[in-house]
Amino acid sequence: MGINEPLNRKLRMALVGGGQGSFIGRVHSIAACLDNRAVLTAGALSSNPERAKSSAPDYGIEDSRAYTSYQELIESELALPEDQRIDFVSIATPNHVHFEVAQAAVKAGFNVVCDKPMTYDLAQAEQLLETVQNSDVVFALSHNYTGYPLVRQARAMVLAGELGEINAIRSRYIQGWLRDSIESDDQKQAAWRTDPTKSGAAGAFGDIGTHAYNLGRFMTGLLPEQISCHLKTYVPGRRLDDYGTAVIRYENGALGTVTASQISHGRHCGLEIEIDGTKGSLTWHQENPNEMSFRRNGKAHQILVPPPEPEYQDRMGAGVCRLPAGHPEAFFEAFANIYIGAFDDMVKRAAGQPFDGRDSIYTNCYDGVEGMYFIQQCVASSGQDAAWVPLRHEAARR
Amino acid sequence: MGINEPLNRKLRMALVGGGQGSFIGRVHSIAACLDNRAVLTAGALSSNPERAKSSAPDYGIEDSRAYTSYQELIESELALPEDQRIDFVSIATPNHVHFEVAQAAVKAGFNVVCDKPMTYDLAQAEQLLETVQNSDVVFALSHNYTGYPLVRQARAMVLAGELGEINAIRSRYIQGWLRDSIESDDQKQAAWRTDPTKSGAAGAFGDIGTHAYNLGRFMTGLLPEQISCHLKTYVPGRRLDDYGTAVIRYENGALGTVTASQISHGRHCGLEIEIDGTKGSLTWHQENPNEMSFRRNGKAHQILVPPPEPEYQDRMGAGVCRLPAGHPEAFFEAFANIYIGAFDDMVKRAAGQPFDGRDSIYTNCYDGVEGMYFIQQCVASSGQDAAWVPLRHEAARR
Amino acid sequence: MGINEPLNRKLRMALVGGGQGSFIGRVHSIAACLDNRAVLTAGALSSNPERAKSSAPDYGIEDSRAYTSYQELIESELALPEDQRIDFVSIATPNHVHFEVAQAAVKAGFNVVCDKPMTYDLAQAEQLLETVQNSDVVFALSHNYTGYPLVRQARAMVLAGELGEINAIRSRYIQGWLRDSIESDDQKQAAWRTDPTKSGAAGAFGDIGTHAYNLGRFMTGLLPEQISCHLKTYVPGRRLDDYGTAVIRYENGALGTVTASQISHGRHCGLEIEIDGTKGSLTWHQENPNEMSFRRNGKAHQILVPPPEPEYQDRMGAGVCRLPAGHPEAFFEAFANIYIGAFDDMVKRAAGQPFDGRDSIYTNCYDGVEGMYFIQQCVASSGQDAAWVPLRHEAARR
Amino acid sequence: MGINEPLNRKLRMALVGGGQGSFIGRVHSIAACLDNRAVLTAGALSSNPERAKSSAPDYGIEDSRAYTSYQELIESELALPEDQRIDFVSIATPNHVHFEVAQAAVKAGFNVVCDKPMTYDLAQAEQLLETVQNSDVVFALSHNYTGYPLVRQARAMVLAGELGEINAIRSRYIQGWLRDSIESDDQKQAAWRTDPTKSGAAGAFGDIGTHAYNLGRFMTGLLPEQISCHLKTYVPGRRLDDYGTAVIRYENGALGTVTASQISHGRHCGLEIEIDGTKGSLTWHQENPNEMSFRRNGKAHQILVPPPEPEYQDRMGAGVCRLPAGHPEAFFEAFANIYIGAFDDMVKRAAGQPFDGRDSIYTNCYDGVEGMYFIQQCVASSGQDAAWVPLRHEAARR
C-alpha cells in the first residue's frame, strides 16, 4: 500500500515558528515526519526575518521556501503549482500569534495543525472556529497527550461502558521548572509563557492546566457545567498564575478536579489522571505512559499495556502502536498519532472524500474553543474568590 | 534498660470496644503491645454485655476483668490497688460512643488512647479538650498514619526548613470498598460508618478525609484559615457522603487540596500526599510507606527510606524504626509508634515528671478538636454550595 | 474463641540469645508475641552471664527466669511445675551455637523455633533432624520470608497448577551493608557473620543465599538435582564469600539461578524471585511485599495483593492476613506467620492431637537440613571451579 | 547550522530487507529518518522480487530505485552520479543474509548499519571485520539499547570512575512470546528465529542474550575471560534454545551473569541490568528507560533521569536527548541515537575528515565479532555440560 493512499505521495508540510531556540517547532517537525507520511517543505520559522532565514537549514528547508513571514509563505505557496504546494501548515509560534496565522492559512485553504492553546483568547477561538466551519480544511489541535495509545484505550473503554457511569475525574499536571523567576534571566521559554501579552490570560493553567482538563474530557466525554477555580502566583514578580486548582461539576453529576503547578521542585511533566466509574476505575501517568491501571472491586488489579493483550484488543485499534509490547513508545510517537489522525482526513479531503472534522479522533478546533473557554472561566472564577461560573459552551464540541 | 524505665514494668491496658466483628480493636491491641511495653489487662469489649464477656478470651483478658460496660470497667479498676489497676484506656468503639467513654476515663484519671474521629461532633470535642486540660492525663488520638517513620521524617525536614516556605499541600485518601451499598447487607463496618447517628456529620470525609487533612497539618505545621468543600453521595440511598474534595487556604498563603473517596473501584488505602516548598518537594504514599520522594530542581531525585541514610539522620531519630533498612515495617508498626510516644508521656506522668501533652509527637486532643472542626466546616461549606467558611479554631493546637 | 484453644492460655516462650546488641532476638520476641498467643517468660540472653542478666529487663523477663546459660534455662524450667514451665525455646544466637541449644531443648521436650541457618554444618543438621524425628516436639525454622501472605499465595497457586509445569526459577538476595570491611571495626553483626568459626562454611551464601534458594523451593516444591556455584570475596581481607551465583538443575528439567550479594551499594534486602511456568509466571520482591505480578500471555498483567481478591481466595486462606487490603503488613507480620503456624502445632501437641511436622506450612527441620546441604554443596562446587555437584538430599523434605 | 554540516544535505539511505511482514525494517527506517538527517531513497526490500517491488510504495521509495536484489541495488547505485547515489545501506534481513549483503556493501564503499547479530556465525563475522578494516566505510551495528540516554550516562559514569572498580554485572532479557510453538503456525517472526539455518547457532541467546551481554560490556568496558553457559529448550519440537543462563568471568575478577528467556509468560522486553562497583551501584530497566537508580552506601538513593540534572551533566552530553525531562523518549529515539552517532562519522568521512570506527559511541563491527564469538562460546559451553570456555577474542574491541 502506498503512502497516504490513494494520494501515493507524502504530504508537504510548512512550519510557522520553530526558529532557533524553539522547543515545540522541532517536536512538530519530528512528529509530523515520523511515519514517513509528510515531508517538511517550507517554513516561516521566525517573526525575525533574519532568524527565519538562518533557521531554515536546520530543518533542511530550501532557501527558496524559507519565508520571512507567514503572509509571504501563504502567498508564495498559493502561487506554486498544486503538485508542489504545501498541504498543511503547522503552527508553533507563541500563543498570541496562533490566531492570525491559523485564520490566514485556513482562509487560503491550507490544512492546519495548531499548537495549543489555540488562540490568545476566547473571542479569537470562536472566530477561528467559524472560519474553519466555513471552510473545508482539516484542522487539528495538538493536545498531544491524547495521542498516547493508552489514553485512546481509556477513551474506548469508557465509551464502551466498561467503567459504567463516570462519577469522578481527578487530573493534575505538576511541573517545577518555573519555581524560580527564570523569566528574569530571559530564558526564552519562560519569558513568553509568563508574559500575559503573549501567553494569554492564564499562566500555568493555560499552559498545562488545559492539558489536564482536556485529558479528562477526551477520556470520558463528560460534559462540563460549572467550574470554581483558584489561581495563585507564588513566585514574586510573576504576572501570571504558576499554581492553581479547580473543581468542575459535570452535567451528569460527576465531580472533576484539575490541579496545575509549575512550582513543584523536581517535577517534570507529572500529568496524571484517575477516573472513577460505577463499574471500574482507571489511572494513568504521562511519565510512565505505557502502563494503565484498571481496577474493579473483587477482581485482580490489571496493568494494561500497549498494544493491548487480546482480551482488550477490541477496545482499541492497534493503529497507533508501531511496536510490539515492551518496546516503549513515548512522547514523539503520541504526538505523531495526532498527526496521523489528521493526515487520514487530509488524504480524504484531497481525494474528495468526506471526513468528520468535529467528531475526529484527533483533538480539533472544537477542543480549541473549549480550551480557551476553560481558561477564560478559570480566570473569571479565580477573580471572584473562586465563585462558580458556567463551563458549558454550546458552540464547542458536545 | 528496663521496660518503661523508671517504671520497670509494662503498662496495663484496658480496651473499650473491639468485640467480635471489630477491626480496629484488634489493631489497637496489637499496636499497643507490639513493643512489649504494655499488656492488655482489662476490657469492656462490647455494649452488648454478652458479647463483651464472650469476646474477652479472644484477647486473653481474664474473666474477672472482662466488664460489661465501660462504666463498670472504670469503677472496678479504680477500686483495685494501684499496682494492679490499668494505666490507660484504649477506645475502639463506633464514633458516637468515643466521647462518653473518654470523658469518664479522663475524669477517673486514666490515660486515654482514643480512635479517631475523637468524638461525634465538635461540641463534644471542645468539651473533652477542656476536660483533658483540667486533668493531668496523657491523651493520644490515633491518627495512626502520623506514626510512619517517613511521615515523621517529612515533618522534621519541613520544620528544619529543608523545604523552605510551604506553598502547596495536595493530599488524598482513595478507597473503593463502599462502591456498592454494602450497608444494605448489614456489613458491620459499612453499617455504622454510613449511619449519621453513629458516624457523625460526614461519611468519607469524616472517616478518611480527616486523615488526609491531618497528615498535611502534621507534616507541615501550616495553620488553616478557610475551606471550601464539596461532598457527594454517589451510591443511591446512602445517607452520608462517599466522595468529596476540599480546597484549603492556609494563613501563609499556601493552598491545600484534600480529596476523599470510598467509591473508587479496586482502591484500598490510597492515602497520598505531596508537599511543595520553595526549596524542595516531597511525595509519600501510604501503601508503599517505606519510600518518600525528595526533589529539588537541579539535583537528582532522591528516594528516602527508613531508617534514614546518614546524610538525613539528624532529621529523624531512629526511635521509630525497629529494623534495618530493607526490612519493611508497615501499618501496625506505625500505629505502635503513636502508642510508644504516648507511653513515654505516661511513664513520665507516673514518675511525676512533666510532659507536654499539647506539642507532643503523637497526635492528641488538640488534633481531635481540629479534626471535628474540619468535619463540621466541610459539611457546612458543602451545604452552602461550597462557600468559603472559616477553618481556624483558636482552641485547637496552633 | 479463646487464645490457643483448646489450651486457652498463651504459650510461654524462652529466648536464647538476643542480648544487648542483638538484632534478631528482638525480632523473634516481637514476632512471637504479635498475635497475643505467646508471652516471653524466660531467657538465656547471652553467653556472657552478666549480659544475660542485664539484658533481661529489656524484655520484661523476671530476674528469677533470666538464666546465665541455656543449660541452666533448660534444667530450671524442667524443674518448674508444668503450668509455669515454658512451652518453647526460640534460638537467636550466632549460627555456631544453634545446634547445641536446639539439641538440648528438643531432648528436654521443649518445642523449638530456631533461627536459620539451622546449624553450623550439615553433620550437625542431620544429627538434629534425627533428634527431632525421635522426639514429639514441634520444630520450626525461621525462613521468615516464607511467611509473607503473597509467598504463601504463590505456593498455593503453583501447587494448584495455575502456573503449569515450572521451567525456571530466578531468585536473588542483594544487599550492600558489607561493601566495606566493617568487621574490622568490630561491628557486631558483621563480625560474626564474616567469621567462619561462627557463621559456617559460607558468608553471603549462608546468610542470605539460603533464603533465596529456600524461597524458590517453598514456592514451587521443585526437587533439586545438581548445583554449580561460584563464590567470590570482593572485600580485601574478608574470610568468607560476600558475593556468589549458582545454577541449579531441578529433577523435572527446570533451571534455577540463585545470586547473593552483600557488596551492592545502597541495596538493603533485595530478595526477588521470578517463576516461569508453562501456564503463567510470577514475580515478587521482598521490599515491596504486598504486590505480586501474575502474568499470562494473552491476558492482562495482574497485580495480586493481600488479602486476595475473591477470584483468588480459594488459593490462600486469609489466615495470615491481619488487615484489610491496603493496610500494609510487612516483615514482623511475616515473621509472626512462621510462629503462628508453629503455635497451631504446639497447641495440637499440648492437646494430645497429631500434627505433621514434616509437611508443615512453616519451614522446619527438613528445610534446615536442606539449607545446610545447600551451603555445603555450594562451597564444594565453588572450590572445584564451579563443577556440578549433587543437590539431592534423601533425608531432607521431599 | 545546516543538516549534516558541512555536507548540508540529508544522507541517502538504502534499506535491504524490510518488506511486508517485517518488523525491524520499519524500525530502521523510522529511526534513521527521525532527526531529519537521512532520507530513505532506495531499497531491496525482499529476496522475493515481487514483494521487493510491491513493498516499495509503503516506504515511499520510487519504483526506479526499488531493486529486486541487493546485488542489483549495489550495482545500480554505484552507477548513479555521486550526488544521487545512496550514502549508506541498512541491513534488516534475517540473520543468515547479513553477511553477504554487508560484505558487498562495504566492498562497494557504502557505509553500513547492520542489524544484530552481525552475521550467521563467527567465521563470517571475522571475515567481515577484516573487510571493514580494509575499507574506509562507517560500519554500525544496531545494538540499539546502547542508544538510550541513561545507558550512555551509565557508561560515562563508569568510565569516569564514579562507580569505582566494577565487581559484578547482572543482566537479563526476559520475554514470553515464544512460550508456545508459534513457529508451527508459521508466524513469520518466530519461524526464522527458531530455524537454525536462518537464525544461527543459538535461539534466545543469539536473539536477546547477546543484547544483555553487550549492554554490560558497553556500560562497563570490562573485558571477558571465560564463560559457562546452560541453554535449554522448553518448548517441545523447537530446534534452538528458548532459555538460558551464563556466568562470565571478567579479566579484572568481576563476575557477570546473563540470563535470557523467551518463555516467561506475559513478559515483553524485560532487559534489565545491575552493576556493582566499589563506589556505587546502578540499575536500569529497558521497559522504563527514563529512570536509572544510582546508589551509594550512606547516601540517599538517587533516581537519575534524562536529560541529566546539572549535577550529572558533565557525565553525559545532552546530545542524545531531544526533549526536556519528563517528556519520555523511548525505543525509536534510542535506536535513532545509534544512527546519529554513525551519521556523524559518515559526514566526517564524506568531508574527508578522520573518524575512529573502532572506539565509536555507536556499537560497531568489533561488537559484532564479539557478539558472534559470545554466541559460539555459549553454545560450545552448553554442549559440554556448561564447562568453562574462553571468552576473549583478541581481534574484537578491547
UniProtKB/TrEMBL annotation, chains A, B, C, D:
Ranges where the Gfo/Idh/MocA-like oxidoreductase N-terminal domain occurs: 12-141
Keyword Transcription among UniProt keywords: no
Enzyme Commission number(s): 1.1.1.361
Keyword Oxidoreductase: yes
Enzyme class, UniProt record, top EC level: oxidoreductase
Domain GFO/IDH/MocA-like oxidoreductase per the UniProt entry, residue ranges: 151-282
Gene3D superfamilies noted in UniProt: Dihydrodipicolinate Reductase, domain 2, NAD(P)-binding Rossmann-like Domain
Keywords: Oxidoreductase
InterPro entries linked: Gfo/Idh/MocA-like_OxRdtase_N (IPR000683), Gfo/Idh/MocA_oxidoreduct (IPR051317), GFO_IDH_MocA-like_dom (IPR055170), NAD(P)-bd_dom_sf (IPR036291)
A GO term for molecular function: nucleotide binding
UniProt-recorded name of the protein: Glucose-6-phosphate 3-dehydrogenase
Organism: Stieleria maiorica
Classification of source organism: Bacteria, Pseudomonadati, Planctomycetota, Planctomycetia, Pirellulales
GN (gene name): ntdC
